[in-house]
Amino acid sequence: MSQVDLVWVLICTALVFMMQAGFMCVEAGITRAKNNISVAIKNISDFALSVMLFWLLGYGLMYGQSYGGVIGTSGFAFDGLGDASAYAFFLFQLVFCGTAATILSGAVAERCAFHAYLVITALTVALIYPIFGHWAWADAPDGGAAGWLGRLGYHDFAGSGVVHAVGGGIALAAIIVIGPREGRFLDSGQARRFNGSNLPLTMLGVLLIWFGWFGFNGGSAFGLTDAVPRLLLNTIASGASGVLTGLCVTWILEKKASVFYAMNGGLAGLVSITASCDVVSVREAVMIGGVGALIAIFGDRLLERFRIDDVVGAVPVHFMAGLWGVLAVAFFGGDVLAASFLSQLTAQLLGVAVLILFAFALPLGILFAIDRVMPLRVTQHVESIGLNVGEHGANTDLNELFEVMQRQARDRDLSTRAPQSPFTEVGQIGLFYNSVLFELERSFELIQSQKNDLSEAVEQKSALLENILPKRIAARMNGGADQIVDQVTDATVVFVDIVDFTEYTASVPPEESLGLLRDLFRRFDAVIQKYDLEKIKTVGDSYMYVSGVTSDMADHCAVAVDAAVEVLFETRQIGQRIGRPLQVRIGIHSGPLVAGVVGDLRFVYDLWGMTVNMASRIEEAGKPGKISVSQGVIDRIGSEFVYERQGRARLKGIGPTVLYSVEGRRAGPARKLRRKPETGTAG
């Protein structure tokens, strides 16, 4: 290797290393803020691990003296012994290995445990990548192909298959084993996309990767030859074709230019041309890049259909488009390779089949086995709070602000202050937030003082009744009514039941189970007070409240469901705090009922009628962690809330009934409580 060629290979090595920074930017920008530090440290760590394992083991397996065209047997713990060309070749192959390893990071982001990620990286670098690389790229002493696949005519100039399809296939196996992120797919099968923390950073990452690809394809000539300008032009043309294809297709399908598919279309175009950039014309490169982008777009939708969660689209871009790049060699480059179309296509198809088996099926089996011994996924609690804090203790100003707000909502203590600084955006938000808190505290103190003075005499008179009855009912009794019973034409009844609470009480001391119950019901009380609803009673681990009886609200049904959504949230928060998967079942029904005060010695305010019975039975037939409602509820709130059909259930004493699950409110303007005019009720 001449000095000029040596310099060119080293420059290209640096360019390929720059792709590592590009991958980090892409992944950090497209993941949520609570996980972006996690993907950044994964990108640094996987490269460091790749360096050590490829030097120690991978390079020898890939380029050592071939044993039957299957595996290398020399060159372990590489030392070029002063040969500059050998060192340059090793460095170039080393950064290629790092690229194959880092493809995994974006696919498994936001739920893969750090230790598990390092294990999968080690599997990639020490086994899958170098062995397949030996089959495709290893050279014999006479300059011919040494690997069995290369000897059969398989051509993959810079690694559409060896690097990208290998990395993408292992990524597909990993995300199947690990599973989708929590909340990514609804029970109805509908896919939900999460907003990235910084899309401009992701686009910068795409440009850095594109820039590094000049070294990827140009350096694979292993010298500054006359072919290099054509390699670079084919590379940039295929990438540009992929970007424009992504924009045009999404304009047609979605009536808007998709940022995600434009970026991934460009990357898919670069992946697709990598195998054949030395044997095709620029026009053919444009076609190859466009087809690669189409494969990436529709491949991403195919993964969603099968509920496979790929955060950055690594599998469609690297695995699917990489396989297409391997096949494109036969379709467009057979003449240059001096092989018949059929023989070249056979060699390339064989390469595709081997890639699917060796880079996807084999890792899938290995990872399933590892997951049984050492779970690859983080716990639900860590996934909820984010891997930045949960796995690395890497907090941010924004996360600290959220923690303060969450603590204030939980403890109702406005004396806690948010982190503040005049030099950062979040710090400035904290500064103004603290100013608002200070004024709120002063206002609350003044209001509380006035309220205490005003209500002291009234509370002494009516404390007993108001402690056991709704205030409006107590006022009627104080007014002299000796029998209170109301026929309500339309109200909403809600039953809440703690799932598996009996089993929980059997496993902990009585004081602990009672404390949990008190904490839960205290939270529930706060929620229904917030919405001006009425708690009817608690029986064991069951809680019941009603909307539209003691206060006349035209939207009583929507208000009751809003409160139920918050009850689910509060239950989950307590479950995360105690480290248990705490869940409730909620049943809701609307309709006419009778309400009244029963008893003389001890007053009880109660409800009865078919509406109450129906809500109770819906709760019994409902699903844990779900808000189960009747058709009557859907008829009242269907336009305001997201819901899905649970199916037909046989309710005890009622018969077959269609039930629905309510997810939450649809996006739109904030709700305002609408009250009916005070018209009284019929006794």
From TrEMBL:
<dbReference type="InterPro" id="IPR018047">
    <property type="entry name" value="Ammonium_transpt_CS"/>
</dbReference>
<keyword id="KW-1133">Transmembrane helix</keyword>
<feature type="transmembrane region" description="Helical">
    <location>
        <begin position="199"/>
        <end position="216"/>
    </location>
</feature>
<feature type="domain" description="Guanylate cyclase">
    <location>
        <begin position="492"/>
        <end position="619"/>
    </location>
</feature>
<feature type="transmembrane region" description="Helical">
    <location>
        <begin position="345"/>
        <end position="370"/>
    </location>
</feature>
<dbReference type="InterPro" id="IPR001905">
    <property type="entry name" value="Ammonium_transpt"/>
</dbReference>
<keyword id="KW-0813">Transport</keyword>
<dbReference type="Pfam" id="PF00909">
    <property type="entry name" value="Ammonium_transp"/>
</dbReference>
<keyword id="KW-0472">Membrane</keyword>
<dbReference type="InterPro" id="IPR001054">
    <property type="entry name" value="A/G_cyclase"/>
</dbReference>
<dbReference type="GO" id="GO:0035556">
    <property type="term" value="P:intracellular signal transduction"/>
</dbReference>
<feature type="transmembrane region" description="Helical">
    <location>
        <begin position="116"/>
        <end position="137"/>
    </location>
</feature>
<dbReference type="GO" id="GO:0008519">
    <property type="term" value="F:ammonium channel activity"/>
</dbReference>
<feature type="transmembrane region" description="Helical">
    <location>
        <begin position="47"/>
        <end position="64"/>
    </location>
</feature>
<dbReference type="GO" id="GO:0097272">
    <property type="term" value="P:ammonium homeostasis"/>
</dbReference>
<feature type="transmembrane region" description="Helical">
    <location>
        <begin position="311"/>
        <end position="333"/>
    </location>
</feature>
<dbReference type="GO" id="GO:0004016">
    <property type="term" value="F:adenylate cyclase activity"/>
</dbReference>
<protein>
    <recommendedName>
        <fullName>Ammonium transporter</fullName>
    </recommendedName>
</protein>
<feature type="transmembrane region" description="Helical">
    <location>
        <begin position="6"/>
        <end position="26"/>
    </location>
</feature>
<dbReference type="InterPro" id="IPR029020">
    <property type="entry name" value="Ammonium/urea_transptr"/>
</dbReference>
<feature type="transmembrane region" description="Helical">
    <location>
        <begin position="282"/>
        <end position="299"/>
    </location>
</feature>
<keyword id="KW-0924">Ammonia transport</keyword>
<feature type="transmembrane region" description="Helical">
    <location>
        <begin position="259"/>
        <end position="276"/>
    </location>
</feature>
<feature type="transmembrane region" description="Helical">
    <location>
        <begin position="84"/>
        <end position="104"/>
    </location>
</feature>
<dbReference type="InterPro" id="IPR029787">
    <property type="entry name" value="Nucleotide_cyclase"/>
</dbReference>
<dbReference type="GO" id="GO:0009190">
    <property type="term" value="P:cyclic nucleotide biosynthetic process"/>
</dbReference>
<feature type="transmembrane region" description="Helical">
    <location>
        <begin position="231"/>
        <end position="252"/>
    </location>
</feature>
<dbReference type="GO" id="GO:0005886">
    <property type="term" value="C:plasma membrane"/>
</dbReference>
<dbReference type="InterPro" id="IPR024041">
    <property type="entry name" value="NH4_transpt_AmtB-like_dom"/>
</dbReference>
<dbReference type="Pfam" id="PF00211">
    <property type="entry name" value="Guanylate_cyc"/>
</dbReference>
<feature type="transmembrane region" description="Helical">
    <location>
        <begin position="157"/>
        <end position="178"/>
    </location>
</feature>
<keyword id="KW-0812">Transmembrane</keyword>
<comment type="similarity">
    <text>Belongs to the ammonia transporter channel (TC 1.A.11.2) family.</text>
</comment>
